[in-house]
């Protein structure tokens, strides 16, 4: 279905969800909703509560931003809603005991979802089944982009450089715990222990002594039964680059490169350093890099984007070592959109302001063919 000419396209901004990143998703969505021009788009905020309920949310009464003292927002909502498939997919209210009113045709969904049960292909699959266009990566790309283990394996197949790592699934641990411990020890110290499918640095621990490994695994497993242990990028700089899908095949655009420098008491770029006041981090946009290294980061950004078959947008994270070696860390298929988030800040430094960025993503989604691509 092409973009309607007789009315404003209806954009359902979907956010919240069941993952540990629920509140970060709410904050990102608040920024996206505020950026969508009401003269161009009919915006419907749809929150997914922590118990999985879909509800109409009112951003005027539920402020989707950090509260006093860093208080995190959550989906409040009231009227339940669902997307009904059809030639013209519709948003329908579902309160019990009432005749379900049709709220209107949905032209595109902007899924501002982070982590499992939203960013990981589950929501994308639902939207594909309903025939609804949406912003961002498709089902497989979203799933692989959320699972650090499969992401690294796909990067390796594509010939992209990654850090040494050990994947630990419940099956691996049950079958050969001693062997898993040996493989982790072979990585050398320090290592980082991460939930395989969590973001926003939830559940990540730095391990400098193998006696602390079990506690780090327990912390990661609080968020995900699958864990990845990575060799630390000792002495490396952390840089990121944004990618926007081109309007023709392969014509992707990369942003200015940013460097994150963690300050204070933080050993790495953890949750507090990412989302709480900026005295925790320093951000250089553009990053001061040798021209050849910067070119390699941009080329690898596009290669990683294409290796995962991403659509719309992605943020690609790297380690740059003192000798100029560049290693791909991960790809975020739906990066944070908060006021502090790297992706919009990199594009702002590239001449694309926040409202223009959001508008471009919606237009890309409206132009996308529904179904298999």
UniProtKB/TrEMBL annotation:
Cofactor: Mn(2+); Mg(2+)
Main location: cytoplasm
The ATP-grasp domain, residue ranges: 152-363
Localization (cell): Cytoplasm
Molecular function as annotated in GO: ligase activity
Family from the record: Belongs to the D-alanine--D-alanine ligase family.
Protein task: Cell wall formation.
Name of the featured protein: D-alanine--D-alanine ligase
Species of provenance: Nocardioides imazamoxiresistens
Encoding gene per record: ddl
């Amino acid at each position: 279905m092409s973009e309607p000419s007789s009315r404003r396209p209806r954009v359902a901004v979907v956010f919240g969800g069941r993952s540990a990143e629920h509140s970060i998703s709410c904050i990102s969505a608040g920024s996206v909703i505020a950026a969508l021009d009401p003269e161009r788009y009919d915006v419907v905020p749809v929150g997914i509560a922590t118990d999985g309920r879909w509800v109409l949310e009112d951003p005027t009464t539920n402020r989707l931003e950090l509260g006093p003292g860093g208080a995190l927002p959550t989906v409040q909502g009231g009227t339940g809603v669902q997307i009904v498939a059809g030639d013209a997919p519709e948003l329908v209210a579902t309160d019990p005991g009432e005749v379900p009113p049709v709220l209107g045709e949905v032209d595109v969904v902007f899924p501002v979802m982070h982590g499992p049960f939203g960013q990981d292909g589950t929501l994308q699959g639902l939207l594909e089944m309903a025939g609804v266009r949406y912003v961002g990566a498709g089902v497989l790309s979203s799933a692989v982009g959320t699972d650090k283990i499969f992401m690294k394996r796909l990067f390796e197949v594509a010939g992209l450089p990654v850090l040494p790592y050990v994947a630990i699934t419940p099956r691996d641990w049950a079958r050969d715990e001693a062997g898993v411990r040996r493989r982790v020890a072979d990585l050398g110290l320090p290592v980082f222990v991460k939930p395989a499918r969590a973001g926003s640095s939830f559940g990540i621990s730095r391990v400098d002594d193998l006696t602390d490994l079990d506690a780090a695994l327990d912390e990661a497993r609080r968020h995900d039964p699958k864990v990845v242990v990575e060799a630390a990028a000792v002495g490396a700089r952390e840089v990121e680059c944004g990618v926007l899908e081109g309007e023709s095949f392969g014509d992707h655009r990369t942003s200015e490169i940013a460097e994150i420098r963690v300050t204070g008491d933080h050993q790495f770029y953890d949750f507090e350093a990412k989302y709480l006041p900026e005295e925790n981090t320093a951000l250089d946009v553009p990053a001061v890099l040798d021209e050849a290294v910067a070119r390699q980061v941009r080329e690898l950004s596009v290669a990683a984007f294409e290796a995962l078959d991403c659509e719309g947008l992605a943020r690609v994270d790297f380690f740059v070592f003192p000798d100029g070696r560049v290693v791909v860390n991960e790809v975020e298929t739906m990066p944070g959109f908060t006021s502090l988030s790297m992706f919009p800040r990199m594009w702002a430094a590239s001449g694309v302001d926040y409202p223009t960025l959001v508008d471009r993503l919606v237009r890309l989604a409206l132009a996308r063919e529904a179904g298999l691509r």
